[in-house]
Amino acid sequence: MEIQAAVAHGNGQPLMIEAIDLDEPQANEILVRIVATGICGTDLGILSHAPLPWPAVLGHEGAGIVEHVGSAVTGIAPGDHVVLTTTSCGHCATCQQGQPSFCMRFRAVNMSGGRRADGSCTHHQHGKPAFGGFLGQSSFAAYALATERNAIKIDKDLPLDVMAPFGCGIQTGAAAVLNTLKVQAGKSLVVFGAGAVGLSALMVAKIAGCGPLIVVDTKADRLALAMELGATRTINPLEEDAVALLQADGGVDYAVEATGIASVMENAVNALGVNGVAVLVGVAPGQKVAIDPTALQSRGLTVMGTIMAGRDGVPALFVRKLIDFWKEGKLPVEKLIRYYEFSEINEAIAAAKDGSAVKPILRLPMNGEAA
Question: Locate the Enoyl reductase (ER) domain: which residues (predicted)?
């Protein structure tokens, strides 16, 4: 079928709303009409410097309505409302252990470019393969193909243009705190980076009863938002030495790093008190982080990594738990969101890059055409 998609033709180039041919769903696949999709830092990084085989359709925070399902699909039906997340193989050791976010074939199934096991390709343009299936979806488009493993069914009365970022950014920040760190109430926590991931970590840390809650960022408006969302203290590292200030109080129990900057990762570790734990959430491909092993040994420090639903987290179950928090008013993610029409995708990307929008969300037209 021919669909409209925001197509990338190279690194650093603007996306173009163009026609793409999307294959029909195979037996294990579902066809989703995308209603809304978020823009995430991973999209920005790929667009900036990843050596993809162009053209490509990115986007991985899609939410929409199922239109068709393959013959082997049993848990999802046409008309269901779904939030899309990354996919997993379902067969490797970590998937079998109930940790699909750490799927041992994560790259193979999420970055195949839409190449299926039988050699067919999900996306084409002008009769030639286009890179699709990005992180299990390629949601910068009117329609996306997904599977039961990465489509999370939600109630039909939930606003899809609010639910979309639960598939990645909201989930990732929240899981870093609740699933990977498994925080204890009454313990201190600092978040480095007040983007959508970091602020989600802050909000669930408040839910979990952590305190004091500190947020470190260079943007005054982000720090003000952090205070509104539950921070008890903020630090601008352009004005103050965050590590020195935190160590003056004996260091923190938990640190969440959500910038993807190597030097900030080092600061997160250095801000810890005795027996403190740091979790690295920001994506930093190719960067090297310097950590003093003596500090780890003498202070009993732990450094962890996390992605998506985190340790022992199942995305479908965890996202629904977060949605319950949202329903209760405890996770007001709408305060992070700025909306754009699909045709304004390049403006939305620019706002994400310069930090003027915390979480840009694209709304797609009902008829699948460019607005």
Answer: 10-362
| Residue corresponding to tokens 């390049």 | 346
Give the integer Cα–Cα distance in Å for 179 and 368. 37
3-class DSSP state of 244: helix
* Alpha-carbon span 335 to 359, nearest angstrom: 9
User: Which amino acid would we find at residue 216?
Assistant: V
CATH of the domain at 348: 3.90.180.10
Residue 329, number of CB atoms within 10 A of its CB:
7
Whose CA is closest to 62, among 83, 79, 46?
83
With contact defined as beta carbons under 8 Å apart, do 295 and 270 qualify? Answer: yes
369 lies in a domain? no
pLDDT digits (tens, 9 = 90+) for 314-364: 999 999 999 999 999 999 999 999 999 999 999 999 999 999 999 999 999
Question: How long a stretch of residues is the chain?
Answer: 371
The residue to which tokens 């003093």 are assigned: 292
196 belongs to a structural domain: yes
**For the purposes of burial, counting CB atoms within 10 Å of the CB of 209, is it exposed (0-12), middle (13-18) or buried (19 or more)?**
exposed
- For the entire predicted model, the pTM comes to 0.93
179: containing domain = 170-305
371 falls within a domain = no
